Amino acid sequence: MVYLSCSIKISATLIGIFMSLSATAKEITFGTREARPYVIKNGADVSGLDHEIIAAALAHKGHTLNLKFFSFARLAATFNDNQELDGAAPVLPTFKLDGKFTEPFTTYENIGLSLKNSNLTLKTLTDLSTLRVIAFQNARVALGPDFAAAVGSNPNYREETNQNLQLRALFSGNLDVVIGERRILNYLVKDPTANVNASSETMEHRLFQPLHYSAVFRDPALAEDFNAGLVAIKASGLYNAILQKY
What we know:
The chain is α/β, with parallel strands linked by helices.
């Protein structure tokens, strides 16, 4: 398997404010996936909402990150198979992972996105059963059994890793609905580097309950360090500052 790796250093200011140094502080080999604006990779630089929350929470105990990137569909399986990974995110308790889940640190709001001029009315998941639908990889697991049942017999349903391609297909009229996370889809529609010709107005369909994602760590002590750091950055106001940034 081919993956990218980079060492992420927490700024001295951040460490000085939020870190409680201990003898167990370590560099954590951590699996994630790139999905703007949650994880944004520009060469060796990594930013993004999820990444900055994870890095800040772990910095509270002096930990730093060595990131390895995988597709979302492969992230869970890779964590179980690759003992070199100390942790991974974002993950859900429904994923069968050999580690300790943390408290949820981020909330995703999945939606259906259609073109406004298509005049689609989507009230329930079963409305997707006859449409041309594309979703992110592993959506049938992440979005639950009702969604899986609704699209299970739809020959025009598929999953695609590259969400830029999903949106290009939508705006070109080759499909009816894109299923994805609201912040991600809206970010890509407005991002000039995504090469999405967003010439038509879109409509959001709120078909899903919010999903509260956690991190997972092979060592339960690291999960507890993360939880403690999460409490600390929420109390300090840093957590809300990161949310507002994105």
